[in-house]
Amino acid sequence: MKIEVAIESDYQYLFERDSHIAESLIRTKIRDHEIFIFRESNQEIGWMRYGYFWDNTPFLNMIWFDEEYRGQGNGKEAVIYWEELMKQKGFEVVMTSTQSNEDAQHFYRKLGYKDVGCLLQENDPLEVILLKKL
């Protein structure tokens, strides 16, 4: 798997698939190098994007792989890649979150993330906030 910073030509791919981001932010995040595209044999197989919690702590907002590329270690490879990049940028802590009814919480805990809080929004499952010291 190749992990590449998203570029303008990736816009349509992201626009068509990532329903969890406002369309107006896709190009901004591409410009700011906050989206990565995963490729296998030059074919897009997923993406990862992040932002900053409190404008100072890297926060992994989304990681997505097409179904046939899950359970093969790609997610772990992608998260470790992102963590190393954040460490190189001088950050000592990273964060993410997942809903309490999703298996992703176990994935992050295996990678060393610790539960540090939660968020409860009306009509949604509990959102578990996770943190990892790099």
TrEMBL record:
Gene Ontology molecular-function annotations: acyltransferase activity, transferring groups other than amino-acyl groups
PROSITE patterns reported for this sequence: GNAT
Residues covered by the N-acetyltransferase domain: 1-134
CDD domains referenced in this protein's UniProt entry, alphabetically: NAT_SF
UniProt superkingdom: Bacteria
InterPro entries named in the record: Acyl_CoA_acyltransferase, GNAT_dom
Protein name as catalogued: N-acetyltransferase
Native organism: Paenibacillus azoreducens
